[in-house]
Amino acid sequence: MSIQLSPRLRRIADYVPRGGTVVDVGTDHAYIPIWLLQEGVSERAYATDIRPGPLERARADAQRHGVADRLTLWLCDGLALCPPEAVDTVILAGMGGETMRGILERAPWALEKRLILQPQTKLPELRRWLGERGLAVLDAALADDAGRIYLIWLLGAGQPEPEPAVDRALLRKRDPLLRPWLAERIKRAGKELRGLASAQSPDETALAARRRELEALNRIYREVSLW
Ligand SMILES: C[S@@+](CC[C@H](N)C(=O)[O-])C[C@H]1O[C@@H](n2cnc3c(N)ncnc32)[C@H](O)[C@@H]1O
User: Fold this and answer.
1) In ligand 1, which atom is closest to the CA atom of 92?
2) Does residue 128's CB lie within 6 angstroms of at least one atom of ligand 1?
3) Residues 48 and 139 in one domain
């Protein structure tokens, strides 16, 4: 029986080109690589996780779905065991922005691949860091999964956007999830701003960056509300 992907995982998998060879970092259940192999999108796939438990379950699932001989599972930190020449696409999903940044810093070769990211936290910081390394968001998508909205980026070499608060791709597509997603982000950014401001000796640079982000989000939210 074919594996069913949740809307979030499906949006991520949709960015993998037919024939693409993928490594899914922090794979947990390995649903994405199993699905890519089952659907014939990929001939071979790789996945890593830092914990043995998920990989054991992933191995059992891959066997049940008849793709175990084409899926290599590595127990390691990030991309430590992945030879750069083995893959053309790197997926990092469901992890915090700082964890993703650490993984990419330890394997800078991954920045030259087709990079698909679905960060859970620290989106602006991660986006800025990627931009400083010459990476731009080539496309972006939102996925509604059990009432929570997730952002997915397809990254590649390019000019970083001048206004990084909201990806141009989302505005261009007039994604109907944009408004509720912006409302969530405004709430979260406001909370972070209050947290920063209430510190004993507030970090003025971080405060100014959060204020700018919040202003931009509010402005875009007002524009989107007029659509
Ligand atoms: C919340 S799960 C996300 C699973 C899957 N990628 C998804 O999006 O549904 C995060 C997974 O990343 C793994 N992980 C965390 N840090 C890691 C690292 N440095 N290297 C490899 N895997 C890591 C965890 O063990 C966990 O299985």
Assistant:
1) 6
2) no
3) yes
